[in-house]
Amino acid sequence: MVGQALTGTGKTAAFGIPLVEQANSSQTAIQGLVLVPTRELAMQVCDELVRLAQFRRLSVVACYGGQPISKQIAALERKPQIVVGTPGRVLDHLGRGTLQLGYLRTIVLDEADEMLDIGFLPDIQRILAQTPRERQTALFSATMPSIIHRIVYRHMRSPMWVRIGGEIETAPNVRQLYYEVLEEDRVYALVELLRTQVNGGKALLFRRTQAGVDKLVRVLQRQGITVAGIHGGMTQSNRNAVMRAFRTGGLKVLVATNVAARGLDIPQVSHVVNYDMPQSLEEYVHRIGRTARMGSEGTAITFVTEWDFPMLDTLRACQAGELEQGTLSLYQVTRQNVGQPKVV
Predict the structure, then answer these.
(1) Hey, which residues does 137 pair with through a beta bridge?
(2) What are the percentages of helix, strand and coil residues in the chain, rounded to 5?
(3) pTM above 0.70, yes or no
(4) Residue 258 in contact with residue 188, Cβ under 8 Å?
(5) Are strands 2-4 and 161-163 parallel, antiparallel or unpaired?
(6) What stretch of H or E contains 108?
(7) Which of 163, 198, 215 is where one domain is finished?
């Protein structure tokens, strides 16, 4: 089956509850496997399934890179019923023989459109080849581009589609704004927004590259803003520490690559800022889905530089007028003073 619904509406519970209900606690074999694209999402989904499974005496183990594999091998030797993992580390365990999927009943691809993209698809195919033919395959995501539809029908038999909302739809309680700003002036506009609009709230800022994350963190720190970054080039212990601080509120401003764009449920994110323009409509939907989750309200801000107007046209056409222009205008942000940006 394929499940599609807005970000922040409870898709983890939608597949997690049946997964837990169907598992047999007396059977010491892996019956459910959930594949996710990032380490942070693997930890989050595992924690959610542990909460769901605690009263059924089921064991859930997370397998992801960046953590000592010996710790995971020891956990797998205790015969869990459900495994949550990233494709690379799952394949590693399969190759070592520390993970067997011969009794698997259900496999779930969370953030399925990314999992079936060209970057992950070969690994997914290798994993599927080691599972029983008679199994349930479930795909879940907020977006399902047309190219993914073709892959779905290639790998699934007569799938049932369950979709809540439109084909491409954002959360109803997120206010979407864009600001037309010269590329060289973005940082000054950002500092102004952090000080005036975010104003103590929790802000998640997206950049396209790891180097871009590190650079923006350094620039904001020089402005006296307490900020940290997260991307795939960091050690897992550093990534965990940053995410823990952001979740608990000790850190209010986080700069991230798309490693934080999908699936993560971070409490009370008031603002998402696309410092770099998303490269696709699906990327935009997932990024801004980090705010206004489970009925709460939030604001999504996108900076539009002189190179970004084609993508802006795409966003405006698909968002049905929900994307508003902010009060800053192109060429109207001026650099008066590094410490005190001025908006005229």
Answers:
(1) 107
(2) 40, 20, 40
(3) yes
(4) no
(5) parallel
(6) strand 106-110
(7) 163
